[in-house]
Amino acid sequence: MLNRQGRPTQPGAAGAEAHETFTGNRALQQEEALIFEIGRLDVTGVDFDEPEAFMPRLGGLERKGDIGLPGLSEPETMRHFVRLSQKNYGIDTGLFPLGSCTMKHNPRLNERMARLPGFADVHPLQPVSTVQGALELMDELAHWLIELTGMSAVTLSPKAGAHGELAGMAAIKAAIAAKGEGATRRVVLVPDSAHGTNPATAALLGFEVKAVPAREDGTVDPAEVARLVGTDVAAIMLTNPNTCGLFERDVVEIARLIHEAGAYFYCDGANFNAIVGKARPGDLGVDAMHINLHKTFSTPHGGGGPGAGPVVLSDRLAAFAPLPFVRKAGTVLELVENGNRTEVTPFGRVTAFHGQMGMFVRALSYMLSHGTDGLRQASEDAVLNANYVRAGLADLLSQPSGNRPCMHEVLFDDGWLKGTGVTTLDVAKAMIDEGYHPMTMYFPLVVHGAMLIEPTESESKASLDLFIAAMRDLAMAAKRGDTARFTGAPYHAPRRRLDETRAARQPVLRWTPPPPEAPAEAAE
Fold it and tell me: Domain of 412: which CATH number?
């Protein structure tokens, strides 16, 4: 059924279809068209003076036709984006159980600190003498990242976790080349359960990737590492805790095998938030590790632009850290941007400037407000909450490695759905109806029908109890044969279930105006 705007009506509460509204709105759930459909291409929302005559300098590449953007007034623009924001689900809306992504609460204190003058308005091209406070903050953040990880050096410039991976592996590549082994050490070992960025990063740098099979419980067997490691291996890229939510219990032995072969140990630090204050990667034999500040130290994912993925390095790699870095010269801090001014051999740069100041401020604010004991408690609470969810669902949902303690996230598979006619994707869609963003689905790939739940440390017991109760209700509905609740879900979202396969294979990436309607025939 279509409403008067020509859009499909959305089933909601009982009888909702029988009470179709003229506008398509449903009280506070307001229908919103595309911005091109509500704006006019021939007007703007503001008045511009006619430009003076000028000579184009684009060599004939300047725009010849209209720009084709919709014109809206300020109220129309505000209403459009506010209405769209009301259709979003975020951590400020409710529990966000997205495993392996750590969608936790960001304290508003950190946001306020990031907006202080001198941080919010700092410019990368300012003279160093005018940004001593910013450099001091970077130096302080670097100190605590090194202290918490037990490493020797850190580079702050990478702008995301994957960018940090690239920097860390580039440092490893530079160290291998410095030893004259660049032509022979061409292999990087990557466990089957790794984040997809790991093999992509290694391949981007020209390495050959060899998979390390996981044990039945999802962890890496050192015997497999021993079988694969040799003089052709440059490094291993291991996530710890791993993507199955488990601590790699043989990590020290794996590090020993890698180092004895002359290779390097890269640790994917995406899950560092589970062990901060409990274990230091440097003490476990790690040579390089990126840290997702948004996951471990509470900064927004992306932060409205570049994020931050600092990389900590061991003694074996510290000399190859990329430029730039902060150095104290007497009582003055300087930003070293030229390799000729250092005693070390940096491999170069990974970004034009110095990282993302807003992320640095938020992360250090989080550290200082929590203190050592608070950071440790955050890790403990993250692990406690995940195990609370595991215990609350263990009798209804199946786990690939059995009902055993996990770290900061708990992994279920689709074994409990066998014979129900319900799939992992169906469960995800039904969770939307219950007011939850689905957990991570179908990842890690080593588990069939994976459902990875990370409640984080910032959820209360009451919040977790409601989530567990909702998941138990869904599980019991699936087991008793209430398939319609799942296969047609979501029923209450602004849009019903999409044909995701078609959307992926035939994406519509550009709006085109609909053809003009044919004039109605004159009445006889």
Answer: 3.90.1150.10
Q: Specify whether the CB–CB gap between 62 and 89 falls below 8 A.
A: no
Statement to judge: residues 467 and 347 lie in one domain: no
DSSP reduced 3-state for 190 = strand
SS3 335: strand
Q: Kindly report the CA angle at 213 between 208 and 219, in degrees rounded to 5?
A: 120
CATH code of the domain in which 140 resides:
3.40.640.10
Question: For residue range 241-278, what is the model confidence (pLDDT) as tens digits?
Answer: 999 999 999 999 999 999 999 999 999 999 999 999 99
Query: How confident is the prediction for the chain on average, in pLDDT?
Result: 91
Q: Which long-range contacts (CB under 8 A, 24 or more apart) does 181-186 make?
A: 181/262, 184/231, 184/232, 185/231, 185/232, 185/233, 185/234, 185/262, 185/263, 186/232, 186/234
Residue 435: give the domain boundaries: 373-505
Residue 270 CA to its chain's centroid (Å): 9
CA–CA separation, 265 and 236 (whole Å): 5
**pLDDT tens-place string over residues 32-71:** 999 999 988 888 888 888 888 888 889 889 888 888 888 9
Given a contact cutoff of 8 angstroms between Cβ atoms, the answer to whether 120 and 358 are in contact is yes
Decide if pLDDT at 219 tops 50. yes
Q: Which band of pLDDT confidence, cut at 50, 70 and 90, is reported for residue 495?
A: confident
Distance in angstroms (rounded) separating the CA atoms of residues 202 and 114 = 34
232 and 177 within one domain: yes
